Amino acid sequence: MAKSANQKSKLLYLSKILLEQTDEDHPITVPEMIQELAKRDIKAERKSIYDDLETLSLFGLDVQSRKGRSPGWFIGSREFELPELKLLMDAVQSSRFITQKKSDALIRKLEGLASIHQARQLQRQVYVSGRIKVMNESIYYNVDRLHGALSAQKAITFKYFDYDISRQKVFRRDGKRYTVSPYGLIWDNENYYLVAFDHVNQEMRHYRVDKMADIVVTNLPRSGQEQYPNFQVASYGQKHFAMYSGKEMTVTLRGRQSMAGVVWDRFGQDIILVPDGESHFRVTLSLVMSPQFLGWLFALDGIELVAPQEAVDLYRQRLVSIQAAYQDVSL
C-alpha cells in the first residue's frame, strides 16, 4: 500500500482520536479508527492499527479494549480523572479574582483534558448562577509576574487604583508608582492579595492584585528582612480579617463551648482553647482590630471580647456609633 504524506503522523493522530473521542462509555472500533484516520488523509490497515495500539500502550497511554454488546477500544485512566476535573472546573468558575473571559478560556482548556463526551458533563457541572467577577483582565498575568519577583527576591514597582461609580480607574497617589518588596500572595475572601514591604513607609502592607497596574520587576534586592527577620505570610493573613488594616493587638475572647468550632474554623486548629468553667473557654489571639473583626464578633452569639481594656473600649465605641446612627431612623 502506498503511503500518504501524513503517514508519519499516524501514531500521533491515533492517540489524539482516542483521547478526544473515547472513554469507558464510548469505545471506538478498529474500522471506525481507520475511517477517522482516512479523514486526515492517512491510510491504515487493521493489522497496523493493532500494532499501533500496542505501541501506544507500551508508551504509557492506558489503551483498553472491551468485547460484548458495546465492543471497542477506549482510554481508561487519564492524567486527570473526571471528578478531579469537576473540582478544578468549579474552582475556576467560582473564583472571583479570575475574570469571566479568562474563566471561559481556562474552562475550554480543562475540557480538552477529557473526552468530548465527558466535556459535556463538565459544562453542566460548572454553571454558577450570578457569580460576581472582577473587571481587571490583567490579574492573570499580574499573578505570574509577582511569582517571578518572589522567586527572584526582587522589588517591584506598580500603580494602584480604585474604580469610580462609572467603572473608570482612579489611580491612587495621583498615579505615582509604588515601590515594594514582595513577600507572598494570599487568597483571602475570594481575592488575591500581595503582601509586601513598603519601601516608603518601611512596613508590611498588602495590595489587591486585581487593582495593581503596570507591574515592573526591578533589579533592586528585596528589602524588609531587618525590620521583619521572622516574617510569616500565613500569620499575617490570619491576623487581618478580609485583609483590612487596623491596630494589631493581643486579645482574649471568651466563648461557649459550642462555639469552639467557629473559632477553629477562623483561626486554625493550632489555636489553644483554655477551659473557663464548665461551659466556656478562653482563647488569646494576636490580630488586627479592624471593623471587619468587630463585625465578625458582633455576628456571633456566644463569643465576647474580654481583654485588653483598650480593645473592649474600641468595640464599645463601635457599638455606640452604630446605635446612634439608627436612633433617628423612622420605622
Structure description:
This is WYL domain-containing protein. InterPro entries: CBASS_pafABC_assoc_protein, WH_DNA-bd_sf, WYL_dom. It holds the Pfam family WYL. Residues 143-216 form the WYL domain. It comes from Flintibacter hominis. By secondary structure, this protein is an alpha+beta fold. The protein folds into four domains: 8-75, Orthogonal Bundle (Arc Repressor Mutant, subunit A); 82-125; 139-232, SH3 type barrels, CATH 2.30.30; 242-327. The chain is 38% helix and 25% strand. The chain has eleven helices and twelve strands. It has helices spanning 10-21, 30-39, 46-59, 82-94, 100-111, 116-125, 139-152, 233-239, 260-267, 291-298, 309-327; strands at 63-66, 72-75, 154-163, 169-171, 178-188, 191-198, 203-208, 212-221, 247-256, 274-276, 280-289, 303-307. Strands 3, 4, 5, 6, 7 and 8 form a six-stranded antiparallel beta sheet that branches. It has a four-stranded antiparallel beta sheet with strand order 10-11-9-12. Helix 4 (82-94) runs antiparallel to helix 5 (100-111). Residues 124-130 have low confidence and may be disordered.
Provide tags for this entry.
single chain, 331 residues, alpha+beta, Arc Repressor Mutant, subunit A, SH3 type barrels, 4 domains, 6-stranded antiparallel beta sheet, 4-stranded antiparallel beta sheet
